[in-house]
Amino acid sequence: MNSQLRREYLDALGLKTWTLRTAHGTADAPSLEIASGATSAAPAAVPAPARDVSAMREAGVDWDELRARVAACTRCSLSATRTQTVFGVGNPHADWLIVGEAPGAEEDRRGEPFVGRAGQLLNSMLHAIGLAREQVYIANVLKCRPPGNRDPNLTEAAECLPYLERQIALLKPKIMLAVGRIAAQNLLGTEKTLGALRQQVHRFGLSQVPLVVTYHPAYLLRTPTEKRKAWEDLKFARDVISRV
Ligand code: SF4
């Protein structure tokens, strides 16, 4: 990506003049210390061992069959209130997997994750690190919208995570970017805050895919002062994948 285009995307993020700096005024080199990803079984997130077992339900299923199973799924009560399932979108050979929490109203209506204003900001965030939306794969922990955009409960996440596990097994990404607290907590099986999970390399599931945590674009739209931290996280993730 040329520097002019990149500058335009950074402008969209509100980061026109910002650069990472250390106390000595040079660009930060993020630590690549590995964090222990799934350390605690917490009521707000699906414990990692349960995830690994439940993921076997979809073992051996290909993309088409997986998509059909999700479209017909009634494993949790969200099937009764959804307009349609939101399977995921993007390049099935992508190195990057972006994982959010659950579909919102617009996603539920259109059947695609991260559309609307939050989706546009996510696109800008990706462009800022040289990625087009079409180059990555985007999915959610939950495939159906929780009514009123409430947080997913433990049962819903436990029932739905096997689909994402199978997507990950088929995709074999080099890195996962968990966007938002709910996605991060469910993927890592922890109750830690998003602030405590940022700027570390976690490892996801049996595949041990590197996983980096950042803010959800919907949150950044409400709290634009945090965009600089999101930019730090994106640069951190880009540094991580460059070393894979
Ligand atoms: S949220 Fe997931 S488990 Fe629940 S009905 Fe939708 S696809 Fe099935």
Structural write-up:
It is a single chain. The protein has 244 residues and is an alpha/beta fold. It has helices spanning 3-12, 48-54, 63-71, 105-110, 116-128, 154-171, 181-188, 194-197, 217-222, 227-242, and strands spanning 89-90, 96-100, 137-140, 175-179, 202-204, 209-214. It has a 6-stranded mixed sheet with strand order 1-3-2-4-6-5, sandwiched between helices. Strand 5 (202-204) and strand 6 form a beta hairpin. Helix 1 (3-12) runs antiparallel to helix 5 and helix 2 (48-54) packs across helix 6. Residues 17-34 and 36-43 have low confidence and may be disordered. The protein contains 10 helices and 6 strands. Bound molecules: iron/sulfur cluster. The site of iron/sulfur cluster has 14 residues, from helix 6.
